[in-house]
Amino acid sequence: MVSQLANSAPELARNRKSVSSLVILLVGVVTAVLQSSVVSDLIVFGVSPDLPLIIGVCWLLLAGPDEGMVYGVAAGLALDAMSGAPFGLLTISMASALGLIGVTYRNVFAGAWYMPFLACLGAAGVYNGVFALLARLAGYPLQWWPVVSLTVLPSTLVDAALFSFVFWAVRSIRLRRAPLVVLSQ
To answer: Which residue stretches of 49-152 are H helix?
Structure first.
């Protein structure tokens, strides 16, 4: 009986991981649909917040880089499917932004209380900047100063401001459900 339980433990872990991946994919698609249908109508300083990016940075910082990147690719693909831009621009932009945060996740963003805010600020800047660059490379005529001053900068600041509220709310919910585990070295 004990050996049967010991043999089934890896199978249970695999099943949990596959269910977790399905949940991540579903959340990515749902946030992309919300972005396209509801959030895009919320205009702050001439831009709408990027809900999938904000949730992606939260997910990455709270659940780890692996789950954050899975979410980012799922949300990016869903956004691309609903966007009029060339397919792949939003996925590459999302993966670039979350990849940057994922690379520095353990070393930089585990420190002070303001580091998650700076992570979102950096991710939003990369997301918007990469999207503008890729759109220009795809042949869209862009004048850089108006794009940066009227779109990239305001969008980055709006995303960072909204992230402040979303991150602390999600973090407090997560702490109530399952306390963070501190790994010793």
So the answer is: 51-63, 65-82, 89-108, 115-137, 144-147
Cβ atoms of 160 and 117 within 8 Å: the answer is: yes
pLDDT above 70 (res 100): yes
Q: pLDDT digits over 124-143, tens only?
A: 999 999 999 999 999 999 89
Asked if residue 102 belongs to a domain, the reply is yes
3-state secondary structure of 44: strand
Pick the closest to residue 119 from 129, 108, 130 (CA basis). 108
Quote the number of domains for the chain: 1
Q: Could you tell me the residue range of the domain that residue 110 belongs to? A: 20-177
Residue 23 pLDDT grade (very low, low, confident, very high; cuts 50, 70, 90): confident
Eight-class DSSP state of 111:
S
Q: Is residue 8 part of a domain?
A: no
CA distances from 169 to 27, 29, 36, 164 (A): 17, 21, 23, 9
The answer to whether residue 11 sits within a structural domain is no
Distance between CA atoms of 101 and 160, rounded to whole angstroms? 14
What is the 3-state composition of the chain as percent helix, strand, coil, each rounded to the nearest 5?
Answer: 80, 0, 20
Residue 108 sits in a domain whose CATH number is 1.10.1760
- Whether the model clears a pTM of 0.85, i.e. scores above it, the answer is no
- pLDDT score of 112: 74
